[in-house]
Amino acid sequence: MKPLGDLVLVKKVEKDEVKVSGIILPPSMQIDEYEILAVGPKASVLKVGDVVRKYKFAKGIPVIYRGKDCLLFKEDGEIESIVKSTSN
Question: Is 52 in contact with 46 (CB distance < 8 Å)?
């Protein structure tokens, strides 16, 4: 799949229990992270393999890619921050 424009295809990164100082955080307090699977031709910052966080109210467009639930986000407007970058 090749997204159009500045869209990026992401899948949610599955995490085990998140602990802060030994306290297990409930899912409502955890921050979701997403791995970039594909980028559109106008996406200028994000690369395949980057791990990102979305803005709290960004919904994205749900799609099924290779049998997995994924989302399409706009690079500019729905992605809040890059957690791990594949570029040096």
Answer: yes
